[in-house]
């Protein structure tokens, strides 16, 4: 293939390649056993998300095509490999005195205890469903099928109960809930005896009926979300063939959309073993650095210089403390924040409530349409409104920007980031934070919030939002489309056709192009340096760097280079203006380009793993 000619890759196939990289982390020789096991749980959750959301385009437009079948074949291959790895982990865990037992391995007293547990705690919450109601089955629930001859009964286990239960009095002993139910099927079926049970689960496409629903419409839209079409069915390997055909036909599935796998079907249950296993088999807690002089008086600090932090190596707590300081400072008059995925407990959100109760002008753009976080954000909207925080109306475009604004004694301060204002993410994701009092930047942040409140498209001078981010990327790439040009782009997803076309043209004109793309990259060329980093921390920062005749221009922000982010969302990209901060971000990028411990080199022919070297970009200092 001539250099510079693109090899197209579908988003679904590219994302599954990423999930295979996740699965391969279970084999890392430099990771503790329980951390390797954690990646099996992450892989399982990712695969559920794939069939619930990421496969939706191909399911709607290419179902049954060779491309669709190839994607499903890769998903099945990974699922079979994951099942094999699970069984290997069970053997390895025995060395840690952790045992996942079959009911037959329990003592008589233990079996009696779990019989009582099933009768008291599980059976009252379990649904018995007639086969005629197959079309109403719930997404991601665990089911059992039973019958003598024809399929007679379906049992739906409650999703509120853990799938893996500790055995009382037997340290390190666990038993699967599904295996226990199988042992005592008589507690769940109206028939006499103990007829055999066969495990299965399905996944539906999960999309809001009204993607632009505002706060007053959101509850109704959420109620309708799980009515999506079934996209995937998993059966245990011994599931009777006549029953499987009955299920497949009733659910409207193609044969290749049905996987047969050994139980357990939902491998995310291993997260229980990770959390309860010995600390010595997990990563040592990271001790993030704290920025010197910033916490004591952030206002004086920012009046002198900008501050860039690289999380989690530098403390995300600095972001929370910045808002806490603003909430209790009597000179602070107003606060604004964009909130996307903030979780159940959030110090920053609590500080905004404290500030409102103290009489400050506080408003938030709380994105009610953050996929799978809608219900949590709906709860936060009630908490904010009850405390006097104005919850801004949702614009037609989803707001994915990460911005905080503080006005204090007539001076403006801002925080701009690449990651969500979420304390868990702040410890597990690599992200950049910019704190600034630069007048042009803070004026744009204020203009952004004012436009959202007025339900108008933001007009910004320095920051870029919406399609302006694409224009920024195209301008930067075009400026480096020559033999001395150099471009470094770091994204989670790089799929925008215009950006990919510009990169191809720059590459063809001799520019050096470095791509650090965690998950989805839909074109590859001979001659491009493309890589994906997968390791202890989730790579999440979005950065664009252009050499610009030897003087680097560096931007960072919330947006991935995808049509949906640039056309259907309000994101924010911000420049790194301070020379010291620029050098820091360049050091981060160069460390990732040199990494040979967490890296996969991406080529038109596949991916090549680089492990075991001396350069670990996830130990940044």
Automatic annotation (TrEMBL):
The alphabetical list of record keywords is: ATP-binding, Kinase, Nucleotide-binding, Phosphoprotein, Transferase
Q: Which GO terms describe its molecular function?
A: ATP binding; polyphosphate kinase activity
The UniProt entry, under Pfam families, shows:
PP_kinase (PF02503), PP_kinase_C (PF13090), PP_kinase_C_1 (PF17941), PP_kinase_N (PF13089)
Enzyme Commission numbers on file: 2.7.4.1
Q: Which residues form the Polyphosphate kinase middle domain?
A: 151-270
In this protein, which residues make up the domain named Polyphosphate kinase C-terminal? 301-455, 480-610
Keyword check for Protein biosynthesis, yes or no.
Answer: no
Superkingdom classification of source: Bacteria
Tell me what this protein is called. Answer: ATP-polyphosphate phosphotransferase
What phylogenetic lineage does the species belong to?
Answer: Bacteria, Thermotogati, Deinococcota, Deinococci, Thermales
